[in-house]
Amino acid sequence: MGFDPETLKYDDRGLVPAIAQDAASGEVLMMAWMNADAVRRTLESGRVTYWSRSRQCFWVKGETSGHVQKLVEMRIDCDRDCVLVLVEQSGPACHTNRRSCFYTALRDGQEVEIMSPIEGDLG
């Protein structure tokens, strides 16, 4: 019996958080949202597909920027209300042109930028 995306526990908007992690380094790259169809499309295509809450449409990571996320493995958490996508990331994962969206740390009560944008075009 195959996996059915409908078996995940979605919020009242039909969404589940999806955390993208670099499959090789373990670095956490970003967090976005998926609905059941985005999960299905990701598994079928091997290209990570999210649901854009602001645009109300599917968003294939890298479709416009070229910063593609190739799916290596999808994992489901114990409560079935969050997914982890292990990816091969091409270029920066963040729309700010940083490797990761998690480029700000709280240290000694202060926000500190710990990662600069990658030089070049934002895509």
Would you identify the regions where 5 or more consecutive residues have pLDDT less than 50? none
Q: Helical content, roughly?
A: under 10%
Question: Structural class given helices, strands, pairing?
Answer: mainly beta
Rg (CA only) = 15 Å
How do the helices and strands follow one another from N- to C-terminus?
EEHEEEEEE
Number of strands: 8
Average pLDDT:
95
Give the termini distance in whole angstroms: 40 Å
Largest sheet: 4 strands, mixed
**If helices are DSSP runs of H or I spanning 4 or more residues, what is the number of helices?**
1
Tell me the strand order in the biggest sheet.
Answer: 2-1-6-5
What portion of the residues fall into strands of 2 or more residues?
35-45%
Shape: globular
Q: Nutshell version of this structure?
A:
The protein is mostly beta strands. Helix content is 8%, strand content 37%. The strands form three sheets. The chain has a four-stranded mixed sheet with strand order 2-1-6-5, with helices on one face.
Account of the protein in words:
The chain is mainly beta and 123 residues long. Helices cover 8% and strands 37% of the residues. The protein is built from one helix and eight strands. The strands form three sheets. The protein has a four-stranded mixed beta sheet, covered by helices on one side. Strands 3-4 form a two-stranded antiparallel ribbon. Strands 7-8 form a two-stranded antiparallel sheet. It is globular.
